[in-house]
Design a protein that fits this description.
single chain, about 220 residues, Rossmann fold, globular
Length: about 220
C-alpha cells in the first residue's frame, strides 16, 4: 500500500520556482492498477520519480508498506529502488553495451544474487515477456516494442511488488502498444501494484482507477 500525504515538489531555476506537485494526498491500495493521466508538463513523471525514490520531495510523506521513504538516507533509498519498485521508462533505458539477457541480469547483481540464479531468472523473465529468442541481441538490434518488453523484464528482475511505468506505450505502434498493455494487465492479475502515467486511453478498461493530474494536483 502507498499512502501519500501533502506531497509537494518545487523546482528552483535561478530565482524562479516551479511547483511540479501541489499538496497531493492519496492512497494506492495493494494490487491496484492506477492510471495517471494528464497533459504533458502536468507533473506525471515527477510524481512517479518521487514514489520511485528517484527524486526527493520538497515536503510531505510517501509511506510505502508502513515506511516513509522521504526519511530514508541514500543507502536506504538505493535499496528501496532495487527491491521495492520497478521502473519502466518511455525510452527504455537499456544499456547499449549489454545484451537483453545481460540487461535483465544486472539489477540482480546489485543485490547479490549468484550468477547462475541471475541467468536462470533472467531467462524466465525474458520468456515471460516473449523475448527469450532475442536474449543475445543488443538494444540497437531490437525494435522499440522489443526493447520495451526487455525493459519490463529489467523492472521485474528483483520481483518488486510495485511497478511504475512512464508512458510505456508512447513510442510504440498500435499493435505493439496493445501487447505491452496486455502484459501490464497480466502482471496486475499476478498481484503487482502498478501506476502508469499515460496518454493511452486503451488502458482505461484495465485500470482499477483513473487519477487525473492538472498543474501538479491529482484528482480521482
Amino acid at each position: 500500500m502507498i499512502d501519500i500525504e501533502n506531497l509537494i515538489k518545487v523546482y528552483r531555476r535561478g530565482k524562479i520556482e516551479v511547483i511540479a506537485i501541489r499538496d497531493v494526498s492519496l492512497r494506492i491500495e495493494k494490487g491496484e492498477m492506477a492510471l495517471l493521466v494528464g497533459p504533458s508538463g502536468s507533473g506525471k513523471t515527477t510524481f512517479l520519480h518521487l514514489v520511485g525514490g528517484i527524486d526527493r520531495p520538497t515536503a510531505g510523506k510517501i509511506v510505502v508498506n508502513g515506511k516513509n521513504i522521504v526519511n530514508f538516507n541514500d543507502e536506504e533509498l538505493t535499496n528501496y529502488r532495487r527491491k521495492e519498485v520497478g521502473m519502466v521508462f518511455q525510452f527504455f533505458n537499456l544499456l547499449p553495451m549489454l545484451t537483453a539477457l545481460e540487461n535483465v541480469m544486472l539489477p540482480m547483481e546489485f543485490v547479490g544474487v549468484p550468477r547462475n540464479e541471475r541467468k536462470s531468472r533472467a531467462m524466465e523473465l525474458l520468456k515471460k515477456v516473449g523475448m527469450e529468442d532475442r536474449k543475445n541481441h543488443y538494444p540497437d538490434e531490437m525494435s522499440g516494442g522489443e526493447q520495451q518488453r526487455v525493459a519490463i523484464a529489467v523492472a521485474l528482475a528483483n520481483d518488486p511488488p510495485i511497478i511504475l511505468a512512464d508512458e510505456p506505450t508512447g513510442e510504440l505502434d498500435t499493435e505493439t502498444g496493445m501487447k505491452i498493455i496486455e502484459l501490464f494487465k497480466k502482471l496486475n492479475d499476478e498481484g503487482k501494484t502498478i501506476i502508469i502515467a499515460t496518454h493511452d486511453l486503451r488502458l482505461e478498461k484495465y485500470a482499477s482507477r483513473i487519477l487525473e493530474i492538472r498543474d501538479g494536483k491529482i484528482h480521482g
